[in-house]
């Protein structure tokens, strides 16, 4: 179903305006599907994002500033998210050896195990929702990058 049918709007000011509305709507749809995917695992999308970043850094430590720089949602409070993940024993905080004022964040074994389970779920989700060919995905990535440039 097209965006006009989804939101029941017949006319758009321009095709570009329609594309922007379509992007916002699609972003919301993707976010909602991720919320539903992560809910059974007791995670939010920003928590998943932090764990994914930490796994990419593993076994090296990360700082909260590094997490902030790499997060998809720049409005998220990385420190608070790390607190929640630490409560769930999915991350470990240690005082930095080089700078006593800094704190290193590591993904825990439990965090790695959880992401391993989620990898399978994400793969299944992608297969279900993969409506674009590899070439179409490449074009979409180029266009999205162009919008932000």
Q: Could you walk me through the main structural features you see in this protein, from its secondary elements to its overall organization?
A:
This protein is mainly alpha-helical. It has two domains: 1-41, no CATH class; 42-125, Winged helix-like DNA-binding domain superfamily/Winged helix DNA-binding domain (Arc Repressor Mutant, subunit A), CATH 1.10.10. It contains seven helices and two strands; from the N terminus they run αααααββαα. The chain has helices at 3-7, 15-38, 45-57, 64-70, 78-87, 109-129, 134-148, and strands spanning 91-95, 103-107. The chain has a two-stranded antiparallel ribbon. α3 packs across α5 (78-87).
Summarize the structure.
The chain has 149 residues and is mainly alpha-helical.
For the record, what CATH class of the largest domain applies?
Answer: Mainly Alpha
Our Rg estimate from Cα atoms comes to: 19 Å
- What is the domain total for the residues? 2
Unreliable runs: none
Q: Could you give the topology of this structure?
A:
Elements: H1 3-7, H2 15-38, H3 45-57, H4 64-70, H5 78-87, E1 91-95, E2 103-107, H6 109-129, H7 134-148
Antiparallel strand pairs: 1-2
What would the keywords be for this entry?
7% strand, single chain, mainly alpha, Arc Repressor Mutant, subunit A, elongated, 149 residues, two-stranded antiparallel ribbon
